[in-house]
């Protein structure tokens, strides 16, 4: 079994390879083992998927202790690097984010997603850029005190919360956040919801960090995303939704048979 430091080095290297790192987001130890056995090079959880598997809604509804215990179980089940979707850090303050990140490192995970949107019920929209960068800075300092280089995938929710036809109007704000998050210590920049290839290429060209996009039903092919400069591609909640759709079909057939 590789050490946590070795897994982190492997995970970091995958963001600079000839092809983007493609992550099929998992939700428990069983799905982690399935994806690993299929040839994955690294694993990442999805908060909506984990929440659903545990019987909770998305948006930091899963109790933090359960999130961390669940992450540790996933890490222990596989030999691959595991990144945890840690939503908005499970804390209202930067100091709280720092304390929680130290606990994440203790699970054996090598990275997190940290988003700049507010959790469900805690506010609306996206945090001010100064607030968001302060939280990344706190996360970086806390993580590096235990595992230098811990991977922070800083996510902006701007495109998720805006209509697709309005993304072009927001793209300069997206780019500004990518640059600010890089200065704050982020390792990569996640822009879920953005699917326009020209806008993706613009972000990749302007942002100093490896850019992560989500492969949704309308996303371009992996080759096109690579040409646009994307270095990481995530499936988000779509594998979980597909698995649940299959489960539903079995249950519906059983109900009809009964």
TrEMBL record:
Listed InterPro entries: ICL/PEPM, Pyrv/PenolPyrv_kinase-like_dom, Pyrv_kinase-like_dom_sf
Gene Ontology terms for molecular function: catalytic activity
Ranges annotated as spanning the membrane: none
Domain of life: Bacteria
Cited Pfam families: PEP_mutase (PF13714)
PANTHER family: CARBOXYPHOSPHONOENOLPYRUVATE PHOSPHONOMUTASE-LIKE PROTEIN (AFU_ORTHOLOGUE AFUA_5G07230), PHOSPHOENOLPYRUVATE CARBOXYLASE
Name of the protein this chain belongs to: PEP phosphonomutase
Lineage: Bacteria, Pseudomonadati, Pseudomonadota, Alphaproteobacteria, Hyphomonadales
């Amino acid at each position: 079994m590789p050490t946590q430091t070795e897994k982190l080095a492997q995970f970091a290297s995958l963001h600079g390879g000839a092809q983007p790192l493609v992550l099929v987001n998992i939700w428990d130890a069983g799905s982690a083992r399935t994806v690993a056995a299929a040839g994955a090079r690294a694993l990442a959880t999805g908060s909506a998927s984990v929440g659903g598997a545990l019987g909770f809604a998305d948006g930091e509804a899963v109790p933090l202790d359960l999130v961390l215990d669940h992450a540790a179980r996933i890490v222990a089940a596989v030999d691959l690097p595991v990144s945890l979707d840690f939503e908005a850090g499970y804390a209202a303050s930067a100091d709280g984010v720092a304390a929680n990140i130290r606990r994440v490192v203790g699970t054996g995970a090598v990275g997190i997603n940290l988003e700049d949107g507010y959790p469900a019920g805690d506010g609306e929209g996206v945090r001010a850029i100064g607030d968001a960068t302060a939280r990344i800075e706190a996360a970086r300092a806390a993580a590096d005190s235990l595992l230098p280089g811990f991977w922070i995938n800083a996510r902006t929710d701007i495109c998720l919360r805006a209509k697709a036809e309005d993304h072009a109007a927001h793209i300069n704000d997206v780019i500004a956040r990518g640059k600010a998050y890089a200065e704050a210590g982020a390792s990569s920049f996640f822009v879920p919801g953005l699917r326009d290839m020209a806008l993706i290429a613009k972000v990749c060209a302007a942002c100093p960090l490896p850019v992560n996009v989500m492969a949704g039903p309308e996303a371009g092919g992996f080759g096109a995303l690579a040409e646009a400069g994307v270095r990481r591609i995530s499936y988000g909640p779509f594998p979980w939704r597909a698995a649940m759709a299959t489960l539903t079909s079995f249950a519906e057939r059983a109900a009809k048979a009964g």
